[in-house]
Every structure is written in C-alpha cells, then in structure tokens.
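Usage example:
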Amino acid sequence: MSNPTETTRTLVIERAFPHPPEKLWRALTESPLVAQWLLKNDFEPVVGSKFQFRSDPMPQWDGVIDCEVLVVDPLKQLSYSWNSMGLESVVLFTLTPEESGTHLRMEQSGFRPDQEFAYKGASYGWKSFLDNLERVLTGGTA
Amino acid sequence: MKLTDANPVFRALADPTRRAIFEELTRQGEQTVHALTSYAGVSQPAVSKHLTVLKRAKLVRHRREGRETHYRAQPDALAPMVGWLRDYGAFWRDRFDRLETLLERMD
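Running the assembly step on the lines above writes:
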C-alpha cells in the first residue's frame, strides 16, 4: 500500500469574485442563498450539526447527500462532510480577501481512512480502490 | 451530474465486501463461487448475493461448468464511474457560475 497522503483524492476549484468576503460568506452559510446556487438544504452554520443536500432523485439514487458541519470560521473557512452513495468526502471552502474582492477555494477531498476495510492485511477502501481504477481500466491488473 | 449511468456501479461498489470480491476477480482472473467464498470469509449465500449485485451492475460475468459457476470481472463497466468522478469538477465549476450570478443579484 502506498503512502496515504499520496493516495488521497482531492478536487480543487478556485475563483476570484469581485465581492467582499462578507457577501460571499452569506452566500455560503445562509441556507436559502446556498439553495440558490448549490443545492436545496437544511444547513445551519453550527459545528457538529447534521444536514442534507437534496438533489433531484434519479433511478437508484434518492438524491440525498448527508453532511455534517466540521468548521465554521466566519469570513475565512467553512467545511462539511459530504457523503453520498457510500462515498465519503469533505468539502472545504477557504476565503481570502483580495484588493478587488475575494478569492474562493473549494477543496473536496476524500476518502476518509475509517472507510478502509481491512481484510487479510489489505484494505479495500474507496481511496485505494479509486487509485486502482485507471490501472484496472487499462487492463494492467493481472 | 450525469449520475444515472454510474449509479448501479457506485451502488454495487459501495459495499466493502463487494469491492474486495471485485478486486480479487480483477487480480486473479476467473474464480468459482467456492473459491471466492473462502477468500471473502463470509457464507456462500452471502457471496452469491454480492455476485448478483455485481452482475446487475455488469461488473462481473458468469458461466456454468458442471456444478460450478465461474465468475470473471468486467472492468469496462467501471467507465461510467470514472466519467462521473471527472464530472464532479464540472459540477462545482457549474455551481461556481451560479454563485457568481447570485452574488451579482445580491448587490
């Protein structure tokens, strides 16, 4: 098994918005506003509170994403877990004030170590599984 | 997000035992239910149930030979899932566009 820090999958989306952090923070933390750009939700900016995002249901998926608030650092950082269809990940927003507005960084990282399934000394978590995907797809697993 | 195609695959692989069975099949090639049962460390009916789910997701194929059923992995079935994971980036970029629009409106 390779180094876990190397096998963690992270998606980073960054963008500069010509608006002050205060305004961005509202859009990230006020439930009706969040619903307007992200997904319907019952979010509250309270660490430890559980909430759900609801997407349109599809065949075999109820469209529910289960979340728990992990970090609320006003105007700076917001983080919650993002669990759906057996995939556990963490979403982290970081706000950085800039001269002309605010730089927003969204980092979605997975997949937590407690998901690992230890069996006969090997682990079958999503993390290692996803790392093997490309290899499997190219038929290099024999 | 185009989840529809990837869904049965995600569902099938959301279970750690099924992931283990699938990985074992990709590594070892064709296996009998019998061999998979001793590998997975759960009962044969449980393994058969897991294999049925994997079969529905088209992740495995089977053939009968005498009294034994042999299973083999169909890694091509993973393609929709890989596509969906790539789409997660597209999802957030799209949402950032909507956030931009919302911020304008909030003025």
